[in-house]
Amino acid sequence: MGIMKTILISCALMAVAAGPPAAGSQNDEAALQSLIGRLIAAQTSYDAVALERLLTSDYTEVSPLGEVDPREKVLGFYQPTNKPAADKMTASIAPSEFSIRQFDTVAVVITRLTTTMTVDGKNQPPRSLRATFVCRKVSSGWQIASAQYTGIRP
Description:
The protein is α+β, with helices and mostly antiparallel strands.
């Protein structure tokens, strides 16, 4: 038997042994949706203190531009001093289309984020991203360990 065939059989056996994702409780699903809502609120209000509580200490993000940003860079971006003046720009982000898969103390949350913005008093067309969050359950609840944002074509 060739090495590639052996590897494929081994991977298939490991997948079968691992079984299906653990069924998350409705409480966990509600908590994860709430976590994403709190993340969005902290981002749109440039609340780095709230973000510190929501993100794991080893958080990593793949931005919509494809850049890999460590936690410190993300927190630096969301400092209140970086918040645009309300008369220059306002934005709201609405999550929808949640898909949540839980694996014991880890969950993968995929959602659509639709952003509406006003720049210099002019409404911009809504834009959507697909966001994937890897969340970790800790003693105090859920935190976000990683995020990846991918643009959706208009």
